[in-house]
DNA sequence: TTAGGGTTAG
């Protein structure tokens, strides 16, 4: 016996095995049908081999089994059309070869011509309906079975279960199962499979267990199904038990079972177990290799995936297929290996694997992760056969690359078509709402999500939480978090980050303690949230403590994001030397975002030399981070170095990056009001300016960076229009003060960082008006109250 | 002549 790596010596729970008590259950006997019961005059016996009809029959049988249906049809045309057997043969031929529509049409013609269908006919016909996903016709066929007296036939019922499983009509499948006289192994397997089809993995396992309890001995297909269910439940204990079962009933060297086991262990993130199974396979076919490549991709070992490809290519008996490439593409994305990715794309074309919806979606996905959205779009646009997953992948590609408007446009297009969004669609599109939508729109999409019943899904809830926090409603985000039935690590990371971006670092820390006390293990993203919280709230000592604890207590190596947070934290203290040496001592290559953080710190401290250094580095790195360029451009503008400003503008233009037109929005009960700098077109602008004047007078003339700079006369007019008194955020705040309920905070969102002057102004306004003013920029929310800001004047 | 088949995009 092959020892499958000795993986299942111990199992504490015997969920599946307990009922069987070591004695293999008796295999349910297939009830052999009495041949006479359904015989009818059209059936010809094989005995009359001398007749020409029989010779033709023989020829038809041979032709159909050879798969050339065109030839078969011409033979069929020459024959008498009164023989049910011949019709069955033809229908089977079409079904087996995937010509489901032909099969169904032939059946309908058969009925039209009055030829009686029998218990052989229906399994083929039902399979064709299933293949076509034609549930109207499927139900009609089901209806006619009662009249034919075939509704209790074992094979027909099993086919019905299979068909309803394909439709996802699980209730109908259950009904057929419950009403059939004697379900057999196939019936049970079909039920387990039906639940797999609708992704109800837990229920599927429950059926498997019930089957064992009913004394049905599983065959290899039962185990393959059960393993698939286990692989989705992320609970390898059950998987190991099925593994033991496989050993017990002697399937340990069946390559299909082994491949299923490999996949199950891989999906349970037990890569070494998967490898041991793979090593124990004596004859590895391409499917096993593909599964192993998929396992390496899933478990973050892209190099190993490519090594496996080498091995496949070396072996003459193995041929790369489309699944090989599909499984390999995520590894290219992980490695950032654009060239290899494109090579695989080329290979797919050369090998005529395209068009292929799964492969094309995998390519789209990869290009999205590379950030090469043009190629992702081309792939999407060229696809003949787009399914929901394709749409989801394109939406996710846009969102991951911050192309939110495009994402929303595509989402709308999806809604107007025949495809219905699923939880993945929703979880993918919500970040776009988080970035662009008003609170009212957020509530609308939230309502829509509730109507679809998707709000119970943890992924979706997490995204809703993030959306509300990003749009300024932290309280609602918190309520959603508290109301969640099932919180995962992402839920905790999200709520910690929510308080972080609102400058309430103490709350983040409190939530982190709560999370630990509930026994939830933090991961690297938890620390990104936590360190952001410390940085945004100026909790310098706490930040360092968590940074050290992350490595020492949790064994998590800091990634570039963590270094970024720490750099913001150091920058806040104004110790620029420490900031610079922190970058120099980092084991990772600094990104534009890292230098941007130093640039920001230098600018805040007024250290032009260091700012210049950071700027040079930002420009020398290839990146598409619009924010970094804008930061740089603003800094030069403040210093009056217009030639540098123009230079950056030209770089951005060359890269196709658009400078976002600064704008601020404020929401009233009825609509969203949008302001740009020096905008006078708004209905209430006269009133707004009046308020602005009152406030300006009240404030005296605060610090104004621009006033200290000498402008060229030609630029003076432009600069004046752009002077801080006219900045959109002030217009929005003033409008908010006069158009929202007294006592409510004024919530303003803007697409660029608030300037120093406006920050001073907002503090004053909050003091004078005695109202809380919340200004959200792409990174943080400033909560202004009684003349103070939650950011501690560093952002 | 009849049912179920391992790897496949997020």
From TrEMBL:
Gene Ontology molecular function, alphabetical: mRNA binding; zinc ion binding
Pfam families documented for this protein: DYW_deaminase (PF14432), E_motif (PF20431), PPR (PF01535), PPR_2 (PF13041)
Domain DYW: 725-795
Signal peptide range in chain numbering: none
Keyword Repeat: yes
Origin superkingdom: Eukaryota
Gene3D superfamilies linked to this entry: Tetratricopeptide repeat domain
Region (Disordered): 19-54
Gene Ontology biological process: RNA modification
Family in the record: Belongs to the PPR family. PCMP-H subfamily.
NCBIfam families reported in the protein's UniProt record: PPR
PANTHER family (UniProt xref): PENTATRICOPEPTIDE REPEAT-CONTAINING PROTEIN
UniProt-recorded name of the protein: Pentatricopeptide repeat-containing protein
Organism: Arachis hypogaea
């Amino acid at each position: 016996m092959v020892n499958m790596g000795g993986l299942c010596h111990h199992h504490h729970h015997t969920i599946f095995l307990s009922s069987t008590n070591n004695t293999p259950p008796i295999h349910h006997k297939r009830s052999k049908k009495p041949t006479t019961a359904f015989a009818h005059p059209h059936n010809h016996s094989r005995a009359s081999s001398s007749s020409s009809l029989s010779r033709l029959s023989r020829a038809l049988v041979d032709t159909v089994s050879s798969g050339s249906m065109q030839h078969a049809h011409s033979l069929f045309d020459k024959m008498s059309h009164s023989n049910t057997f011949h019709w069955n043969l033809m229908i089977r031929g079409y079904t087996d070869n995937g010509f489901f529509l032909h099969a169904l049409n032939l059946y309908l013609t058969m009925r039209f011509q009055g030829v009686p269908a029998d218990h052989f006919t229906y399994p083929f016909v039902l399979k064709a309906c299933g293949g076509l996903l034609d549930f109207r016709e499927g139900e009609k066929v089901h209806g006619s079975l009662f009249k034919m007296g075939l509704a209790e036939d074992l094979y027909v019922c099993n086919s019905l279960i299979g068909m309803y499983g394909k439709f996802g009509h699980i209730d109908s499948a259950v009904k057929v199962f419950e009403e059939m006289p004697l379900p057999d192994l196939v019936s049970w397997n079909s039920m387990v499979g039906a639940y797999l089809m609708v992704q109800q993995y837990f229920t599927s396992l429950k059926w498997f267990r019930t089957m064992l309890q009913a004394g049905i001995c599983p065959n290899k297909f039962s185990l393959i199904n059960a393993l698939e269910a286990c692989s989705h439940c992320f609970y390898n204990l059950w998987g190991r038990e099925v593994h033991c079962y496989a050993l017990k009933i002697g399937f340990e060297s069946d390559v299909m079972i082994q491949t299923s086991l490999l996949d199950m262990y891989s999906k349970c993130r037990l890569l070494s177990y998967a490898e041991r199974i793979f090593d124990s396979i004596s004859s590895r076919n391409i499917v096993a290799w593909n599964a192993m490549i998929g396992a390496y991709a899933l478990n973050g070992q892209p190099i190993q995936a490519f090594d496996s490809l080498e091995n496949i290519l070396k072996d003459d008996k193995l041929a790369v297929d489309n699944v090989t490439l599909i499984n390999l593409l995520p590894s290219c994305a992980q490695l950032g290996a654009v060239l290899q990715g494109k090579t695989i794309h080329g290979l797919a074309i050369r090998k005529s694997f395209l068009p292929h919806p799964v492969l094309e979606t995998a390519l789209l996905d990869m290009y999205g992760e590379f950030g090469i959205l043009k190629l992702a779009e081309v792939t999407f646009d060229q696809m003949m056969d787009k399914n929901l997953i394709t749409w989801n992948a394109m939406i996710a590609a846009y969102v991951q690359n911050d192309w939110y408007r495009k994402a929303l446009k595509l989402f709308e297009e999806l809604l107007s078509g025949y495809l219905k969004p699923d939880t993945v669609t929703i979880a993918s599109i919500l970040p776009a709402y988080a970035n662009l939508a008003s609170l009212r729109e957020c509530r609308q999409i939230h309502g829509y999500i509730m109507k679809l019943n998707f709000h119970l899904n943890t992924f979706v809830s997490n995204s809703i939480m993030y959306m509300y926090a990003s749009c300024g409603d932290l309280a609602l985000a918190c309520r959603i978090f508290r109301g969640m039935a099932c919180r995962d690590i992402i839920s905790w990371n999200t709520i910690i980050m929510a308080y972080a971006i609102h400058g309430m670092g103490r709350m983040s820390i409190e939530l982190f303690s709560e999370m630990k006390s509930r026994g939830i293990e933090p991961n690297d993203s938890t620390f990104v949230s936590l360190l952001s919280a410390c940085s945004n709230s100026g909790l310098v000592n706490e930040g360092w403590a968590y940074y050290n604890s992350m490595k020492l207590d949790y064994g998590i190596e800091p990634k570039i994001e963590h270094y970024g947070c720490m750099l913001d934290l150091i920058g806040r203290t104004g110790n620029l030397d420490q900031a610079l040496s922190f970058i120099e001592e980092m084991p990772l290559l600094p990104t534009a975002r890292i230098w941007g953080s130093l640039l920001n710190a230098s600018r805040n401290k007024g250290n032009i030399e260091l700012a210049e250094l950071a700027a040079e580095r930002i420009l020398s790195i290839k990146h598409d981070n619009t924010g970094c360029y804008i930061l740089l451009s603003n800094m030069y503008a403040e210093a009056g170095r217009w030639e540098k400003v123009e230079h950056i503008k030209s770089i951005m233009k060359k890269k196709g990056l658009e400078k976002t037109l600064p704008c601020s929005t404020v929401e009233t009960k009825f609509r969203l009001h949008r302001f740009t700098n020096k905008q006078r077109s708004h209905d209430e602008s006269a009133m707004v300016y009046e308020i602005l004047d009152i406030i300006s007078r009240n404030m005296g003339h605060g610090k104004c960076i621009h006033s200290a700079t000498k402008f060229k006369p030609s630029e003076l007019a432009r600069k004046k229009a752009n002077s801080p008194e006219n900045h959109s955020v002030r217009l929005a705040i003033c409008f908010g003060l006069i158009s929202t309920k007294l006592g409510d905070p004024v919530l303003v969102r803007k697409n660029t960082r608030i300037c120093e002057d406006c920050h001073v102004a907002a503090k004053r306004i909050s003091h004078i008006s005695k109202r809380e003013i919340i200004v959200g920029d792409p990174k943080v929310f400033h909560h202004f109250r009684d003349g103070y800001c939650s950011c501690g004047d560093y952002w």
